[in-house]
Amino acid sequence: MRRSGEALPSPHTVAGHPPARSDRSDWATLRRLFPYLWQYKCKWRVIAALTFMVGAKVANVGVPVLLKNLIDTMTPKPDVAQALLIVPIGLLLAYGLLRFSTALFGELRELIFAKATEGTARQIALEVFGHLHSLSLRFHLERQTGGTRGVHSLISMSLYSIVPTIIELVLVLTILGVKFDSLFVWITGAALVLYISFTVTVTEWRTQFRKTMNELDSMAQSRAVDSLLNYETVKYFNNEEFEAKRYDVSLDRYRKAAIKSQRTLRMLNAGQQLLIAGSLVLMLWRATSGVVEGRMTLGDLVMVNAFMIQLYIPLNFLGVIYREIKQSLTDLDKMFVLMEKEREVRDAPTALPLASVDSTVRFEDVSFAYEAARPILKHVSFEIPAGKTVAVVGPSGSGKSTMARLLYRFYDVQQGRITIGGEDIREVTQSSVRRAIGIVPQDTVLFNDTVEYNIAYGRPGASREEVEGAARAARIHDFISATPKGYETTVGERGLKLSGGEKQRVAIARTLLKNPPIVIFDEATSALDSANERAIQSELKSAAQDKTTLVIAHRLSTVVDAHEILVLEAGVIVERGTHAELLAKQGRYAQMWALQKSEAAPLL
């Protein structure tokens, strides 16, 4: 059975590389959390929950006191013999009432405070979610995330475990100090200090073993999953035994770490029980001496024993509680670090929505680098007239896709400017810029939802008729209608139930439904075979009709109809012109064209 120091792995998961914890102390993290609890329209709930908590503990402490009175009353005395049949009934009823009150107040506390806890978690989660969406693409490429589950753990552990135990401890020490002598208080206080110090110290020490065990467990599970996901490869090379041996090595490491963790847990539990037993012996020795000397009754002895048992029951789980609170504070601190992270791309204080009806796009002397030592674009200037198509071609890594990211304002340019209709996109709101642009990316990632949902994502709230109209224009309506569930067909994780061509048509339909004045095709057919590429070309032309279009391409056959073609190499435009003009120049474009034509030629 898991007890003091054995906590489950944290429920909070951090993907990728979590942000480093700040220098904030645990108390500072708690102070950062309290305003959320207090502001969530729940001040009365906090007060009511605390009141019920105190009520529950008063009732709980009242049980040993009542037991004392019951035992003292039942002790035979000549002058009260006739009352023996009457008084115990009242005490027994009072005992039952106190027991019920303890449970009732505890349930009322949780019922009243549940809305505050869940509301606080919801508010924080929503703020974090919105803030994460406002951070730059650079941040998300690093995959740093945080979570709010620590809110639940922290509140439940502190409010439902630590604080009630402290309240009960104060009440017990007060009764012992007032009713008996101060030695009872000193014995109890010293025992609790020793118990808590021992538990915290040993739990901190054995955390390293628990952490190692969790890491090895994750490693073993990852190895097993990786092997099973690559089932066909394992079979191809007849390596089942090899994989089993690798998995067994991981399992053996985990076994050794688990035994070490269990051994330290048993040490912790044995030490705790020794301290509990020692303190109980001292308290009972003192109480027994009092009974013998006539200073205390038999009921007092029972009451003291019951007090000690009630105090030590919640402390048995102190190791778990301590670990959970520490982990929750760490998780919360990571989350607050995320919330405090400055936005790399943010709207100017005076930013207004994009107002121009002119969709002309201009790059004016644009330079950009993800890292200062590695420039991507160098003094790039070009114009996409409204309703026209400009294509950018060049080798991988030349900076083509960076242009799309800059136009979407995932990053801000470091030199020059980008304008839409003559307005610098840094001086208007990001949302209005992105509303004006649609994109068909190279790798279309779909939500694990229905086809209708994925197409309607281009314009949430669109009717089924509008979704079907966009699907018809993208020439995917017939395929969807032929499936058993039609538009209710789920596409699977990242759209894996659809072929590459089908996913691209969904992406085109989504962009057509959005109907933006500016469209970007970011190597939209590079992942397709030649047959699918030719089939989708007409849909791409339909999507680009009468729109300002930026085509980023590797295959030159997809850009021959562009009004202007830019040849980009190492972040510099080395040639520009129409397809015919560039071929006539016999320059870099002509070389690329000849090379791709020869690669496409059938082998004899």
Helix content: 55-70%
- Quaternary state reads single chain
Broad CATH class of the largest domain = Mainly Alpha
Q: Could you describe the largest sheet, including whether it forms a barrel?
A: 6 strands, mixed
CATH architecture of the largest domain: Up-down Bundle
Q: Any idea what the shape is?
A: elongated
Strand order of the largest sheet: 6-7-8-3-9-10
Instruction: Say how many strands there are.
Output: 10
- Uncertain runs with pLDDT below 50, 5 residues or more? 1-21, 80-85
Helix-strand category:
alpha/beta
Distance between the amino and carboxyl termini: 74 Å
The total of helices stands at: 19
Radius of gyration: 36 Å
Number of domains: 4
Instruction: Round the mean pLDDT to the nearest integer and report it.
Output: 78
Strand content: 5-15%
CATH topological fold name of the largest domain:
ABC transporter transmembrane region fold
The CATH superfamily title of the largest domain:
ABC transporter type 1, transmembrane domain
Order of helices and strands: HHHHHHHHHHEEEHEEHEHHHHEHEEEHH
Task: Describe the overall structure.
This protein folds into 4 domains: 18-180 and 320-344, ABC transporter transmembrane region fold (Up-down Bundle); 181-295; 349-436 and 518-604, P-loop containing nucleotide triphosphate hydrolases (Rossmann fold, 3-Layer(aba) Sandwich); 444-515, P-loop containing nucleotide triphosphate hydrolases (Rossmann fold), CATH 3.40.50. Strands 6-7-8-3-9-10 form a 6-stranded mixed beta sheet, with helices on both faces. The relative contact order is 0.09. It has helices at residues 26-39, 43-74, 87-134, 137-141, 149-179, 182-229, 231-236, 240-293, 298-315, 318-340, 400-407, 430-435, 451-456, 464-473, 477-482, 500-514, 530-544, 579-585, 588-600; strands at 361-371, 374-384, 389-393, 415-420, 423-424, 437-440, 518-522, 548-553, 564-569, 572-577. Helix content is 60%, strand content 10%. Mean pLDDT is 78; it is low at 1-21 and 80-85. The longest helix has 54 residues, at 240-293. α2 (43-74) runs antiparallel to α9 (298-315), α5 runs antiparallel to α6 and α6 packs across α10. The radius of gyration is 36 Å and the shape is elongated.
